Amino acid sequence: MNWQETLIKALIWVGVPFFLLLIAAVVVWYGFLRKMIRKANADFAKNSDEQSSLFRNFRKNKAKEVSPNQKLPTFKDVGGMPEVIEDLGEIVKFLKEPKEFDEIGARAPKGILLHGEPGTGKTLLARAIAGETGVKFFYISGSDFMEMLVGVGSSRVHDLYEEARSKAPSIIFIDEVDAVGGKRAGMAIMGDGEKNQTLNKLLYEMDGFEGNSGVLTLAATNRYDTLDPALLRRGRFDRQILISMPDIRGRKEILGIHLKKVRHVPEFDIEGVASETFGYSGADLESVINEAAILAVCKNKKRIDMKDFKEADARVRLGLARKGRVITEKKKRMIAYHEAGHTIVFIKSGAPGNVSRVTIMGYGEAGGVTQWIPQEEGRSLFREQFRNLIAAGLGGRAAECIVYEDFTSGAVSDIQRTTAISQAMVTEFGMSDEIGPIRYSRGNMSIPGLPGGMGMGEGSVCSEATQQKIDKEVKKIIDDEFEKAKRILTENRAALDELVELLMVIETVSGEEAVAILKKHSPQTEKK
């Protein structure tokens, strides 16, 4: 065998196994690669499904449906608004007995808007409607529609109404609807795209081309003035119901409802409590009753009484009493003169209301408090009554000037309130002879201590010359009433001193005791 044959045999013995091994490696690698690709495709499909599901859930509405087993209030649990209950009762009847209305050709209202001040019971009414009708009830907050991504809110509105239509007759309750139904700007503003699209979709769903058969939209807001006009037109919110602060009869009914839930003494004076809580909403009354119950438990009592209620009322209205504060005799007497000044001027000037009590016990940031109860329900007051309120508000500063021939910074809240009243008289209520019955302000904000949400404008809309006249009139009103307050206190100095001495001893004096002191020194004292 020559060397060539030997070389060929060597190559065959070495090359063939190497070639076979290479083929086996390629087959194994190909199989592994196919398995990796198959797994990657499966993972991709799974992630795509999850992302798609997540996106669908993101666009899905966040409304919750009332459970059939959920215990809901009815109209019997709502007090202080008989007219509103009567109005809503018609809607409830329409939903429960639609055939009677169909026979005559009546159309169900597409929307009901409940608006009013916070705490007046708008959400409670919505829950009562759900309890009365028994139909499918969806509830959602206006802010739950909104997202950063444009188009999500409108998708949620569409999804909500689709679900409600599939379960008609049904009710959709949108709380704080101003979050989604605010006025649209005349020019597009960056960031308003989502809000405008959501509102447009809501407008369409409530009264669009396809209609909205079988779905009643119920909404609530305490910012009625900010809503878009298109949302308020008839055909969308057919009924717009104002929920006002309860009057004395309403407060009595509300107190009766809440007192059924707590144990109280039989002699609990509901009439007296109702008269003393002027300006309280239903939520305020519930809070005071609950605070009274907590205080009673802390005192190891089995029932709440009037003392518990008065203490709870002071805590809710004024803050915690600072019983352990350290105060000098001089400071205490100065506070007593300040509060006694308010009381004497209030009674003698004929301000609209009655003094409930005067105390030099500190509450919150206040060194002392003169608490008064409005005598008349409603917003309407005469010009002279407003002037007397200003005089009473300046009575504390006037007493300091008479007794100490100087004054402190303790009248800061009094000055704020009296200035607001005098500005409202001139710019809002047209009570200035110099300016006349012209409105020179825009907006409306409440004045602390005045009934019914009376307010003054948020900014002046007038020329500089007119503004100077307004400032002059405001100053004149305050100066005149400050002089009146000083004159009243000077004429009744003996009563002022006696009331101060009584406050120094017992710290809290009732309105009746203050009136008795005035009558003692001036028998002809009467409210004007």
Please, could you describe this protein's structure?
The chain contains 19 helices and 11 strands. Helix 5 links the parallel strand 3 and strand 4. It folds into 3 domains: 171 residues, 3-Layer(aba) Sandwich (Rossmann fold); 71 residues, Helicase, Ruva Protein, domain 3; 193 residues, Up-down Bundle (Methane Monooxygenase Hydroxylase, Chain G, domain 1). It has 528 residues and is an alpha/beta fold. The radius of gyration is 36 Å and the shape is elongated.
The Rg value, from CA coordinates, equals: 36 Å
Assess the beta-strand content as a share of residues. Answer: 5-15%
What portion of residues is helical? 40-55%
For the record, give the distance between the C-alpha atoms at the N and C termini, rounded to a whole number.
147 Å
What is the total tally of β strands? 11
How many domains make up the 3D coordinates?
3
Largest sheet: 6 strands, mixed
Q: What CATH architecture of the largest domain would you give?
A: Up-down Bundle
Largest beta sheet: strand ordering: 1-3-4-5-2-6
Describe the global form. Answer: elongated
For the residues shown, what is the average pLDDT? 78
